[in-house]
Write a structure and sequence with these properties.
4-stranded antiparallel sheet, two-stranded antiparallel sheet
């Protein structure tokens, strides 16, 4: 069986070039934030990182960013996948039936993760 994880990266950046020929561009900061169905924390991080379309660190594992990973739900049907859109829509449409509805309300809550610079001093 698989689990549903929330995966959020440390702050990353990419350069958005207005005019490459004269070196005119600006920095855009972002985080990878995905809901991932996976067997383990490690697989969840890998799948979220691999799905980052804006990043320039793929496929060098040495450049993989730090991630906070939180288990959100157990016993999800496979296969392993990035499922952000799928699960966001399920919760939004009320399709998730559960005896503990609070987990769905807190689907995007990561809590404190100071090792990625998120939630410091909260």
């Amino acid at each position: 069986m698989y689990n549903l994880y929330l995966v959020i990266s440390e702050e990353l950046y990419r350069v958005e070039w207005e005019d490459w020929s004269v070196g005119a561009g600006h920095r855009e900061d972002y985080r990878i934030a995905e809901l991932v169905v996976a067997r383990s924390h490690a697989q969840a991080k890998y799948l979220a990182w691999k799905a980052d379309k804006d990043g320039s660190t793929w496929p060098s594992v040495e450049d993989m960013p730090k991630f906070a990973v939180r288990l959100k739900r157990k016993d999800i049907e496979g296969p392993a996948r990035v499922a952000t859109e799928e699960w966001t829509m399920k919760v939004h449409k009320g399709m998730v039936k559960d005896e503990y509805p609070m987990w769905a309300k807190n689907l995007w809550y990561v809590g404190k993760a100071p090792h990625i610079g998120y939630g410091k001093g909260d």
